[in-house]
Amino acid sequence: GQSLEQPSEVTAVEGAIVQINCTYQTSGFYGLSWYQQHDGGAPTFLSYNALDGLEETGRFSSFLSRSDSYGYLLLQELQMKDSASYFCAVRTTDSWGKLQFGAGTQVVVTP
Amino acid sequence: DGGITQSPKYLFRKEGQNVTLSCEQNLNHDAMYWYRQDPGQGLRLIYYSQIVNDFQKGDIAEGYSVSREKKESFPLTVTSAQKNPTAFYLCASSLGGARTDTQYFGPGTRLTVL
Questions:
Q1: For residue A48, what are the β-bridge partners?
Q2: Residue among B48, B49, B19 at smallest CA distance from B110
Q3: pLDDT digits 0-9 by tens, B56-104
Q4: Taking burial as the number of CB atoms within 10 A of a residue's CB, which of A52, B41, B71, B105 is the most buried?
Q5: pLDDT tens digits, one per residue of A21-64
Q6: Left, alpha or beta for A71 (phi > 0: left; psi -120 to 50: alpha)?
């Protein structure tokens, strides 16, 4: 089976840097995605890593190590609007288009 | 504007009643998905469809049914057989088949069983 683990909650102040780790166990790994969901809203796509290394998109970066079955999402220069839940999701080679989501990490940004 | 619409936003039903949740997309996506989200939980896949007139069970299909008669529509029926239907239901779509297959989500329907 597949499993993903990520911390349940992280709290940080405005302007800080937060790293959300995601470890996964799966067969036939294809790639790791990250989604953001504000309270009561729809998840929105943030990033995708299929290869080892760091992908940077503005204030957010995502990293993947396939050999360690590990990835992280880095949120820099935190803003109040970044308070949300962040989900990692795995796509495997036997799941055309399907994603397996982690339980999510709630990020709380304080003034 | 292209996107995914779900209706209604809030839905109340009495125990023992079937209810159908609507999902429409105008993104010309082949693949569509239904997820269930419970408070403080991740997204669990109910059903997905890769192409019109075809759909597959996800991880928690029991008590649910779907149809895919049109490319743009993927309605979900929550039947009376679903023991604990109160949840937030999210519909998503994607191009399908691509390596970086991003899923686009609708605003969700919050179902409450009274």
A1: A33
A2: B19
A3: 999 999 999 999 999 999 999 999 888 899 999 999 999 877 666 789 9
A4: B105
A5: 999 998 888 899 999 999 989 999 999 999 999 999 899 999 99
A6: beta
Q: Do A24 and A73 contact (CB within 8 A), yes or no?
A: no
Rounded-to-integer distance, Cα A15 and Cα B60, Å: 40
Q: What is the DSSP string of B41-109?
A: --EEEEEEEEETTEEEE-TT-TTEEE--SBTTB--EEE-TT-S---EEEEEEEE--S-TT---EE---E
Hey, is the C-beta of A96 within 8 angstroms of any chain B C-beta?
Answer: yes
Residue B81 C-alpha, separation from nearest chain A C-alpha, in angstroms:
25
Answer left, alpha or beta for residue A58, where phi above 0 means left and psi between -120 and 50 means alpha: left
